[in-house]
Amino acid sequence: MKYKRKKELSAKHVLSIFVAICVLLLAISTFAGNRIAFISNIAGVTIVPMQKGINSVGNGIVSWKDAKEENEELRKENEELNALVAALKMENQNLSQDTYKLKRLEELYKLDKKYSDYKKTGANVISKGAGNWFDIFVIDKGSKDGIKKDMNVIAGNGLVGIVYEVSDHYAKVRSLINDTSMVSAMVLSTQDNCIVKGSTETMNKGYLEVVYLNKDSKIKKGDELVTSNISSKFVEGITIGTVTKVEKSEDGLTKTGRIEPVVDFQHLKEVLVIKEVKETVVLDETIKE
Predict the structure, then answer these.
(1) Would you say the pTM of this structure is higher than 0.70?
(2) HSE-up of 216 (CA within 13 Å, CB side)?
(3) Pairs from 205-208 (Cβ < 8 Å, separation ≥ 24)
């Protein structure tokens, strides 16, 4: 009962206070209107500009924060785009390398079909001698893979050289442009025999020298030279090069000439090794191959 009485008195007190405040505000509005207007004017002159300034600073801070967040997003997007561009460049480079490799392998496939009478195995070039030319180089196949000394090596459109040293897992090849090479060759159109002399010096000028041609040979520019049937180490009929020049020797007893090899001896990556060693009796020790 006492609790209920106290509660009712509290509600009355609150109502009374609210009514008193309303009356006070009405009186102030009626009798002190000019003073309130004066105070409002002062507030308008001082507080409002300050409020505008505070609002401007606040808006500036918000704009700066938004700009910072936007720049951060742009930076992240730029990093992602750069990473994507780098990945696409790498992918394009890999595709280009695959395309070039496919082209080389297609050439080897055609070469394999061209000389289908001979059993062959593919090998990669893994090292070479000093200089720009592949006059000597190493392949990644050796005796464990059936490679033997004096096996012929081909690539591109024809003859590369011959295996001269073999280990278990690699072998060394001497190409026909090496200064020590002398390859027994034959003019395909006339069947005339001759010798192709290796020389990196003449290769720097774009040709290899052909010597010991019969003075009555009908050889001419554009004729194809192949390995001769009388070669002591090279199997018969492998294309060596194309004749670019023919002239009589200084003594007039023979003819000499020049050929352009059909193999690019500055860019060798894959080769075919003919897994056959030619067995012949060497009659002239001065003719090495």
Answers:
(1) no
(2) 0
(3) 206/260, 207/244, 207/245, 207/258, 207/259, 207/260, 208/176, 208/177, 208/241, 208/258, 208/259, 208/260, 208/261
Residue from 178, 160, 92 nearest 123 by CA: 160
Q: Where are the alpha helices (DSSP H) in the chain?
A: 2-31, 33-114, 200-203
188: exposed, middle or buried (C-beta count within 10 Å: 0-12, 13-18, 19+)?
Answer: middle
Q: Which domains does the chain have, with CATH numbers?
A: 150-161+173-274 (2.40.10.350)
Pairing of β 208-214 and β 193-197: antiparallel
Q: Which residues are CB-contacts of 61 (< 8 A; sequence separation ≥ 6)? A: none
- Please say whether the beta carbons of 238 and 245 come within 8 A: no
Using one digit for the tens of pLDDT, what is the confidence trace for 185-240? 999 999 999 999 999 999 999 999 999 999 999 999 999 999 999 999 999 999 99
Residue 88's Cα: distance from chain center in Å? 12
d(CA 118, CA 36): 116
Q: Tens digits of per-residue pLDDT, 88-133?
A: 777 666 666 666 667 777 888 888 899 999 999 999 999 999 999 9
Encoding tokens for residue 150?
Answer: 């004096």
> Closest by alpha carbon to 186, among 241, 233, 247, 135?
241
What is the DSSP annotation of 106-161? Answer: HHHHHHHHHTTTS-EEEEEEEEE-SSSS-SEEEES--GGGT--TT-EEEETTEEEE
How far are the Cα atoms of 69, 112, 176, 181, 207 from residue 272, in angstroms, in the given order?
A: 61, 8, 15, 19, 23
Rounded distance between C-alpha atoms, residue 253 and residue 212, angstroms: 9
Q: How far apart are CA 187 and CA 196, in angstroms?
A: 11
